[in-house]
């Protein structure tokens, strides 16, 4: 048709010829097709999504992987997560965007998300009733399944076996470990640092969802530092770690790694080795300050004091110095580090690694005064007078006692006392000796495993079951690999001996379930069996309480110290102006990463407090 003809006013009439032709919206000539694919021809047909709300943990991996940005995570208050660290967020699907690629199904770590065979969406069993409103979250009852002919085929579910591992790698790459029969002969570090290939392979398993971050007491930038390792850049990885943790190598070696409990890959496979990846980053950077360009801020003229040189005070000093404050740390011992220095054995945390982290902090210009006992060499009131603010991070140093007959016999010691002797290389000769360790925490494991390395035959007696032990599972497993016996449901009764320990007696308790779902309660009565073990040494590792004897009684009362804990706000503030507490003294999770977080928050609290005093 020419241009002139197009301009002719009669052209629209020519379109009338299409009124007598069939529409071309289907194949022409028309062919009748089944609504649903024939069974066997398309077993992975993809229709609307379904989601098992009990399995779903709200990690958001489906939304992150969606190439069409068709998935949004919304908070559903009606959901009650049954898994620890699970979130209340659930996916909704924008089917105007969805391309039905099923990547969201493949990446779902719990297998909760699937795609049905349905492309007719309704909420009512009577399909003649039109329902236009969509649900807020995808659920198992998201669609009805009217097609009974193919009801045995659920549609598209996540692939299993080798095909699944191409999407999510469930197999963990652990660091190389010395065999038990060799490692128990010395205090040498027995867990090897990752090679570059091992670290990158393990880091590449991360889905980047950040579920681990919420589980971390100090909310480290975990996905970011793992991603940097996967890209082959340990320096960038350490930079991410250091933003919220100035003791990276220490935490890499001995952190309680609660983050790994939240790792979504660990739900159906093995969680990422988050702790060991952190150790890899820190081990591959020699000088933190130079590599990361860490510099203190210009001094603002304000002076701060920290009592104790453990992780809480070191963290406080680091962050306060970065804010421009002049910091002095007072330590009663001859070396800094607190329980990290005296309580953790060298095979877990070599002292050169400990001092690498500590020196990087002190070299910012923090003054460390060792062999100074507050309350004796310097009165606490003088600190409050001479400094603009004071932070106390002394930890728990007063051991709990067994309170049984014979506890005062030679050969009976507290766990941290024994570990101090071990770290100072002053432990008694244990070659061929019988050692009984009371307790089930990490200190008990450290005592038992150190004793094995010193030649002792070791038995751990714990008042509950092995599965109830608060120690890290790998510590328990490695202790048993090294030949340490564990007596379950054993409640200490008496220690026998004339001039020293000869026998240890315990009762076999009945374990009563906790109605609230906690650890069972051991009960000893007249019918409980009594047993004895030959022993040369008995070590009680059943916990510690704070020791605030350096504080005047009036200050202890004013801050509300109840013998176990000092109440503080989110920034470590107490009832006394300018006095801050942190670490084991004020939090229930008595571990290093929690102490680091407390020190960081206290530094911010001091900054806010002094700003308000202007």
SSE layout and pairing:
Blueprint: H1 3-6, H2 11-14, E1 49-51, H3 61-65, E2 71-75, E3 89-93, H4 103-107, E4 113-115, H5 161-165, H6 180-183, H7 196-203, H8 211-215, H9 222-230, H10 234-242, H11 248-254, H12 259-262, H13 274-283, H14 288-292, E5 303-307, H15 311-322, E6 326-330, H16 339-342, H17 351-362, E7 367-369, H18 380-386, E8 389-392, E9 396-399, E10 412-414, H19 415-423, E11 434-438, H20 442-453, E12 457-461, H21 473-481, E13 485-487, E14 490-496, E15 503-508, E16 510-512, E17 521-523, E18 530-534, E19 537-540, E20 544-546, H22 553-558, E21 579-581, H23 592-612
Parallel strand pairs: 5-6, 5-8, 6-7, 8-21, 10-19, 11-12, 11-19, 12-13
Antiparallel strand pairs: 1-4, 2-3, 9-20, 14-15, 15-18, 16-17
What does it look like?
This protein is an alpha/beta fold and 614 residues long. The protein has four domains: 31-168, Alpha-Beta Plaits; 180-291, Fumarate Reductase Iron-sulfur Protein, Chain B, domain 2; 295-398 and 545-612, FAD/NAD(P)-binding domain (3-Layer(bba) Sandwich), CATH 3.50.50.60; 401-542, FAD/NAD(P)-binding domain. Strands 7-6-5-8-21 form a five-stranded parallel beta sheet, with helices on both faces. The longest helix is centred in the C-terminal third of the chain and has 21 residues, at 592-612. It is globular and about 120 Å long. Residues 35-41, 123-135 and 143-151 have low confidence and may be disordered.
